Amino acid sequence: MRAMLFDGSSATLYERDLPDPRPGPGQILLDVHACGVCRTDLHLVDRELTEPKRPVIPGHEIVGVVAELGAGVTGFALGERVGVPWLGRTCGQCRYCRSARENLCDDAGFTGYTIDGGYAERTVADSRYCFHLPFHYTDIEAAPLLCAGLIGYRTLAMAGDAKRIGLYGFGAAAHIVAQVARHQQREVYAFTRAGDHAAQQLALRLGAAWAGGSDEPPPVELDAALLFAPVGALVPRALRAVAKGGVVVCGGIHMSDIPAFPYAFLWGERRVVSVANLTRDDGVAFMRIADATRLSIETTSYALSDANRALDDLRSGRLTGAAVLTMG
Ligand SMILES: [Zn+2]
Ligand SMILES: [Zn+2]
Fold this sequence. Notes:
Pfam families: ADH_N. With 328 residues, the protein is of the alpha/beta class.
């Protein structure tokens, strides 16, 4: 099979011909149809995530069709379409796993990071961590649901019942979260890179009440701010935009340093929290919403061998919505 490999020596992925992986007990072999390109993949190739398998096949927003079932697999059938997310396995035994917080597992495996992922024609995955996908999305549309949508959903859930939601960084995650928030009768305020009118237009089209640059104050006080841009300087800025009792949720796996700020920004029971990974329950809950709401998924697709160009476009903000590799 053809695959794109990260070997840790540079930020460039190398195209290789590799033997097809074989499904072990509990695993399924998938013919990959599409794989989303997530900002986490950029943090991987930029070596901001420091403990990858080496070499590793990146990609954790995998849509594929079951080509072979390993021993003991239940719940999936040959030929069925399946989604593979970031959380690839957990230990099931640590105190986090035993308290419904498997996203914090001490010994988890992550797809496209510590486990080979979906920048390839084929992959194997532990079937217990895979999801059934809503039928009415194409393969390309379904791919971003698996991280941008799913972890975006967990980020939104951390805002509790906040009514006025600010989204900082309007890319793959935020454009899905905005629609889920609207579906939940919340108001959305979208902050983009200064001057990114394409992203602002997209936000307004998807139901945002306001869209502007992240250097602008919102027209109203927010109840929560969700940060999808990996920019620590946005934390104090977002704190100033949220009302007393409000929360700033950092939705990414990596962020530049947060600059010092006066305690007064945090005063008034404001909180800053991070979101780590996902639980399988998050996935089930989010796929149910994705099934019920017909989210509009904005994508730019690339051939597998163009993965480096997709990463570059994501890095420079040249694309709107989500980048997706297709294996066609
Ligand atoms: Zn565990
Ligand atoms: Zn991701």
